[in-house]
Amino acid sequence: MKHIYDFHHPFEVLRQADGQKVVFCYECQLFHVHFGTISLDLSEMGMKMLTNILVDYLGRYDGVIDPYKRCVEVETPCQGIRLLLSPTDLRTFSAL
Q1: Other CB atoms within 10 Å distance of the CB of residue 40
Q2: How far is Cα 76 from Cα 52, in angstroms, rounded to an integer?
Q3: CA distance 35 to 42
Q4: Is the pLDDT reported for residue 74 higher than 60?
Q5: For the range 70-79, what are the long-range contacts, defined as Cβ-Cβ under 8 Å and sequence gap of 24 or more?
Q6: pTM of the predicted model, to two decimals?
Q7: In angstroms, how far is CA 42 from the centroid of its own chain?
């Protein structure tokens, strides 16, 4: 993990792989999650909730449906925002 300071906010890149990353911003105290075309800003509680949801959904759908079919509707801690993910997406996303 490395600490990075830009002109505005000090932040730490917690995970990064294949253009996907999780960054913690020390100034705003939020996790910035970037996954494909998705970008979410989450509090610590929101990040924990999302992680638990992803693990739960992966357990339910992995090996049950086509691993690449984006048909699993995942609730997020952000009101009104749901993600359509495949089991492969769930595995990758939860590993971040």
Answers
A1: 19
A2: 10
A3: 13
A4: yes
A5: 76/40, 76/50, 77/42, 77/43, 77/45, 77/46, 77/49, 77/50, 78/40, 78/42, 78/46
A6: 0.78
A7: 9
